[in-house]
Amino acid sequence: MRIDQHIHSLDLGACPSPTQVMLKFAETIRQPGTGIGEAAGIVGQDPVLAAKVIKLANSMFYRGLRPSVAIEDAVARIGLQTLARLSLSLSPPDQHPVIDSFDLERYWHAAHARATAMHSLAKHIRCCPAAELYSLGLLADIGQLVLASTAREAGASEPPPQQLTAALFAHWSMPTIMIAAVAPHHTSVSAADGERLEKLRFMLDIANALCTSAPRPDALPAELRRTAAQMGLDDQRLHTIQAEIDTARQAVTDRFSAAPQHEAYTRLMRLHSTSAHGAAHAGQHAPANAVLITDDDASNIALLTRYLEPAGYTVYAASNAQDAIAIMQQSMPRILIIDWMMPGMNGLNACQSLRQQFGGRLYIVLLSAFVGSDRAIEALEAGANDFLEKPIERKLLLAKLRVAQRTVELTLDLEEAQHQSDATHRELTELNARLRQDATQDALTGLPNRRAFDAYLSETWAAARRHTLPIACIMLDIDHFKRVNDEHGHDAGDRALTALAGVLQTHSRAGDKAARYGGEEFVMLCTHSDLAAAFRLAERLRRQIEQLRGDYPPITISGGVAAMTPDMHEPAQLLRAADQCLLEAKRNGRNRIVMHATETQPPL
Known about the structure:
There is one protein chain. By secondary structure, the chain is α/β, with parallel strands linked by helices. It is built from 25 helices and ten strands. The strands form two sheets. A five-stranded parallel β-sheet has the order 2-1-3-4-5, sandwiched between helices. The longest helix is centred in the C-terminal third of the chain and has 47 residues, at 394-440. The radius of gyration is 33 Å and the shape is elongated.
């Protein structure tokens, strides 16, 4: 399975999480008082869940916002209700028979330990925020879990886990420097990021070394210890980091021993069955006419509520910015009225924070007792849509909120249209890919068809002429193929054609192009090949095909071989020369290869 097939067809739902972690997450996220930090702490214990959250936080729905890498930022962006719905989509390892041979618990221990090590190293080596490095350590080997969780055909080649990890990071819109840090090969970054990238790679190397079960810091490879010393990590600091890793390991062990696998599974299934409907209902967002009022003065909230509720608005209230953000995570009202002057985080800062987390989906009105041009500009630059001066005039307030509600309704319609457009785009992309394949691929044999071969021949011919490179062409035809169809049936003939195509694919070199040219006729263009080498290849193909045995009658082929010569001026001349040799092979008794005669016949 290729990298692009993994990325476009694989969902992280195929990857299980330890049941004990899923149970803790499901129990916590359903508690009414759960905060962003507590939820993020549990998400950060599991690579699969963290990957899902970061992937969603960086999806097209949040387009235009800075990519989220730190888990707490990603949780704050998508909200606790979305997180609650996400928990219902998780399934335990018991439902993943493909992963039976994979030690999930050991993988989970290693990922958590590596994340802890990266977070600890960030205190001593400053190149990225510690919370982002924790995510990097947790997900640095996610490709290994993805490969283990994917059902694959026997003998199918697979990309290296590190290559898949880097591709997944790119698909999730992770920063380029993070992608480069986990990529198996050297990846170029800007000169400004070069030193940071080297630090990240070193930190991953030493984190992996410290997380192995046997070595202690004083047993690290000499080269790692030298680099560590250059970065100010002496043995004492390495021992401190190792102690933090050991503490994290113990926490993992305690988690597994606190709820044995079978008990955790039973509790999790019971929780899912009783909470699915409630969580789905709770996950519904507030209606378009919902308004969140944030003001530290209870009398102002009461006044605004008296204005709004009779006009048909659903009112939410918060006395400070932190509570307002929590309500946003829970219910997502789209219209916000925020007082400028509040203790702690003021209205201006709250507006900036909400814009950063939720983008342009909100309509924010700032309240202030002093509204001059300078304040108006400051409010708009902070992300407010509008502003109101205290004391508030009821008619003006309702007029502004009617504009806000129409804007929110339009935004909701656009979001729905965007979701439908994205789905349609994916369907059209898949359809176009299938149409392109159908237009250039023979449906029976899987080889390129005549149209694809002619296009390849034209490109290769031009390149060979430009760089004076040899190319040769082999034309093949199944002997007495009509007799095969008449005596054994068209199904047997189709199987013979497919078997011959398999021989061509097996024995062609990189750069050669084999195609079904029509009916029982096949062609192969051999790049960087002279006449003698192409003739030897054609003979080898003839012998292999003569020995084919299966649920079809024995077949033989006749073939003609020609190479590009100085007197040929167009690709059609090369094809005609090979075709003339093929006709001569048939006239001379079939089951043979005839080579195009030239004035300077090359030795065989």
